[in-house]
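Work Package 3 (structural annotation) set out to generate three-dimensional models for the target panel prioritized at the project kickoff. During this period the team completed the workflow that converts sequence records into discrete structure tokens, so that structures can be stored uniformly alongside our sequence database. As a representative example, we reproduce one entry of 330 residues exactly as it appears in the project archive.
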Amino acid sequence: MAISQGPKSVEQDPVRKKRRLRTWAVALGIALVFPIATGAFLWFSLPDVTSLRKENPRATAFMLYREEQSRKQGKRPRRIWYWTPLSRISPYLIHAVLIAEDDKFFQHRGFDWESMREALEKDIRRKRFAFGGSTISQQLAKNLYLSPRKSPIRKLREAMIAYRLERSLSKRRILELYLNVIEWGDGIYGAEAAARMYFGCSAAELSPWQAIRLASVLPNPIRYSPLDSTRRWLRKKRVMLAERMRKRNLISEEQFREVLSNLGLQPPELLPSPEPPIPAEPKEDAGSGDSSVPLDGHGDLSCGSFFGTGWNPAAKSTRVHSGQGRIGIA
């Protein structure tokens, strides 16, 4: 009497086995092709950055985003913006911003892998996807062409645009663009506008302590103000920036003491460590602060009689100016 062996298993049925292999092959193909196709689409949809070699942008995506935010809140948008060449920006501000935001700017090719790794490790520890570790080239890419909303696709586009910027423009031009379009307060863009609004002088006239105050609020100039002397974290960051600039002979000992005096500190209170790290923004400050901080008791913060000339830093202004004439209306 024959004994039935029952239905064959999948492993024993060659037809089913072939179907299963085919399914896995298709799934693997999709898994490989999809990211490649997505990357290719993003790459060929990127803006042409070569025009920035000789032309200055007439607006940035970030400016338009801020202005749209103001309209939604029922406010009148303002854009205070004066274009100025890098040669007319104080070297103190250039050095302070580089130290604060991208100390390896002239060594890397658009990406600081060590800083990105450290930022990723912090995100993992805090269990949040906040990115971070962006270089000046990456920040410029975001400011010029993208929205500030965080997403993996936006971050990928930012990296691609930064790659193109680094290969199409000189480091000097990237730095000039960055210092001219970066946000430095509500409706305040670029070094020239920041110098005029906060200190009443041109970007070329900024002193070491003024430059350090401006650099210290990056990358959160809405949350923090260069005129704010009340936050311990800001004061500590300013001392760190001054320490690094002094140790690299970017400022003299006398200028270093002037910075400390402006912060209400004395030389014995200095932190002794060589090349002290820039302190991280404290969690307790998140979402707090106001960029409209009045002058405190550390003396006159202006280059001249700026706050006595009728110019009101809080006044609404819609005109955008340039060294070559007006370049837009917000």
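The chain has eleven helices and four strands.
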